[in-house]
Amino acid sequence: MSKKTNEELQACVGLATAGDKKALETLIGSVQDMVFNLSLRMLGTFSDAEDATQDILLKMITHLSSFRGESAFTTWVFRIAANHLKNYKKHMFAHHPLSFEFYGNDIENGKIQDLPDLTQNVEKDLLAEELKMSCTNVMLQCLDVESRCIFILGTMFKLDSRIAGEILGITPEAYRQRLSRTRKKMADFLGQYCGEYGRGKCKCKDRINYAVQNHRIDPRQLDYMSATEIPATTLTDVKNAMEDIDDFSQDFSFCKPYQSPQRTKHLVQEFLDSTQLSIIRQS
Asked: Per the confidence metrics, is the pTM higher than 0.90?
């Protein structure tokens, strides 16, 4: 993501809707990683997040003419992305929903002993880290979709309650209350079960073979370990009118931000280079 002021982005919107390809590329570059990270946390897997990111960016492009500048450009994109993701039905967990009860039972009763070595000669520390990042991200799927979105906006992006309320169509007070309750629910679960972030007995290194057997991680494709991590501050650099949220200081350090995958960038660039763009501008 490139750091741009709201004024610069609003100027780019005017140029882009008039047909300036460079301005459109600037707009996409300013929000692409933001959209991908929101999608990854909302949907749980890299592949689903990549697909949703493409959909959201294309929706942003085709609705640029409807942007009126009544809010910051990034706020407008957040609203498009959040609405799209809350109603997204093509991801894996839409068909296989999770719950904290299921997750807790799996930790307590999963048969992790006496399994064959399924690491395929991949370093165990690497697989354990992949499992930790995957598990804690997938754990977000135990929340209902609205609470999940609130948690991500408040914990990962640290959105001001006024801005978050505007995005979600709720009052700032309702947002703060729901964020507080959801954070407590997540913290309680981690504290009870997780040995990495809490005081639970579950240790990623002990569950590697179990996770591979159940297709939760794939030694041949380590999405988190191969992704390029970006500084957490980069996410806040693209937002305007943001501030830290008082009384919500607990650090959920598994919410690391990543660059959007090259495949997504290439597909968006292919679209920008295609004749479809001129057709859409004329519609």
From this structure: no
Summarize pLDDT for 153-206 with one digit per residue, the tens. 999 888 989 999 999 999 999 999 999 999 999 999 999 999 988 889 999 999
For residue 81, what are the contacts with CB-CB under 8 A and spacing of at least 6?
34, 35, 38, 39, 56
Residue 99, classed as helix, strand or coil, is coil
Whether 63 contacts 80, CB under 8 Å: yes
Per-residue model confidence as pLDDT tens digits over 31-76: 999 999 999 999 999 999 999 999 999 999 989 989 988 889 999 9
Q: Which two tokens stand for residue 209?
A: 């073979």
Q: Determine the Cα–Cα distance for residues 237 and 150; give it in Å rounded to an integer.
A: 20
Helix then strand then coil, % of the chain, to nearest 5: 65, 0, 35
Helical spans, DSSP H, in 63-110: 73-86, 92-95, 100-109
